[in-house]
Recover the amino acids of this structure.
């Protein structure tokens, strides 16, 4: 039997950065898939996960900076592949990295990542993924061990292997992301990536040279000590998934563990921070 979904159609003005912020906030309360359009975004949540006050804590809906209207209705399970194929356009990062679907033409940049994101987060279109790729472009990952925590589509783990990391662990708590990462790892012919379904509890006894954590602020704060303990001396911690206003609270937590802020990147009020372990 097909799953039943609740479909929300959001009309947003101006569209950016409100659309990206709204998608991130909706993802935190259980929405599984998003299809952007000229007027805003359509978001889907399983009926069994839906509740009447699901939008109550969505901050951007209360913002005076944007006009956001919405309607909702019940729909049978959508053909997600067909939906994102209609809306997923290839992108490029710094003229060095292309992120595309299998049916897009290869622009022949230095790095070419081919993904089918389905319902998983991490197509490269979101600011946080884009900035993490920019950080990774600047790092020498040859022979390094890497953790991609909250891997989504596996895009950052895949890129780490392309940059010659010797061992990469990709972890996500969501089963769909786990399955999707496995598919994309195989699609990009990666051989050094291990994908796991779970949370930070899986990190016990493991250490890495580089840790990538593109998750929401509260999870980062909760798991920061674990990340710090898993990071080798002179290792690099890359954090994203939060706004510029969150930097002080993130930084106050990170510096407890002998880590120093090296390089922040900002894009449409989202930030990605690079920390070095002394």
């Amino acid at each position: 039997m097909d799953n039943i979904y609740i479909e929300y159609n959001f009309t947003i003005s101006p569209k950016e950065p409100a659309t990206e912020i709204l998608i991130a906030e909706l993802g935190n309360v259980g929405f599984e898939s998003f299809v952007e359009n000229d007027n805003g975004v359509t978001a889907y949540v399983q009926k069994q996960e839906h509740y009447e006050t699901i939008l109550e804590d969505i901050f951007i809906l209360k913002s005076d900076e944007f006009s956001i209207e919405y309607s909702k209705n019940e729909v049978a399970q959508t053909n997600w592949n067909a939906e994102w194929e209609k809306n997923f356009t290839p992108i490029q990062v710094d003229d060095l990295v292309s992120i595309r679907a299998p049916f897009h033409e290869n622009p022949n940049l230095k790095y070419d990542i081919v993904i089918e994101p389905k319902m998983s987060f991490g197509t490269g279109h979101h600011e946080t993924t884009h900035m993490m790729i920019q950080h990774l472009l600047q790092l020498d990952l040859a022979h390094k061990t890497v953790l991609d925590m909250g891997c989504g589509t596996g895009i950052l783990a895949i890129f780490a292997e392309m940059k010659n990391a010797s061992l990469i662990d990709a972890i996500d708590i969501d089963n769909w992301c786990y399955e999707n990462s496995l598919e994309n790892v195989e699609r990009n012919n990666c051989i050094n990536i291990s994908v796991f379904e779970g949370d930070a509890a899986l990190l016990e006894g493991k250490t890495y040279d580089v840790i990538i954590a593109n998750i929401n602020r509260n999870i980062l704060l909760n798991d920061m000590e674990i990340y710090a303990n898993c990071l080798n001396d002179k290792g690099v911690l890359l954090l994203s998934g939060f706004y510029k206003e969150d930097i002080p609270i993130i930084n106050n937590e990170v510096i407890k563990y002998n880590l120093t802020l090296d390089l922040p990147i900002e894009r449409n009020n989202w930030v990605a921070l690079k920390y070095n372990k002394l």
